Amino acid sequence: MIPGIKQVDAIAGRFVAYRFTDPNFTSDRALFTSVIVLNARSGRRVIDATAFEGQFEEGTAPTVSPLRLIANGTVAWAARDAEDPTRAWAVNIAYPDNRDELEVLDTSPQIDPESVALIPGFVYWTEDGAPQGRAL
Hints:
Elements: E1 10-12, E2 15-22, E3 32-39, E4 45-50, E5 63-64, E6 68-69, E7 75-80, E8 89-94, E9 103-108, E10 111-119, E11 122-127, E12 130-135
Antiparallel strand pairs: 1-2, 2-3, 3-4, 5-7, 6-7, 7-8, 8-9, 10-11, 11-12
């Protein structure tokens, strides 16, 4: 286990991905949740992105699906407001060359957050039971 990390979501190649919710983050909006990818060899953070872009209830953190990681350090996940199950899920992806930025690929209340899958060159998810995807 890596010191300071409670739970690792994914390991691929030399990269380790995990979710971190800062209980000490002071905001009038909510707790702050990050998706972090470390280079396990160097210990350097290659991704430190906000897990969810959007409004969510004060004092809560967004619900974030398990992270999907590939060997080049790219990571994908789904996230939404933890307090409002009618809100849309957002499928997100982040790349090591854009350390603190995420790209929102799709948003919908019908996205199955457990369906997010990532392989080199392609990200996949289902929306209302229908396959969706995008070449990277």
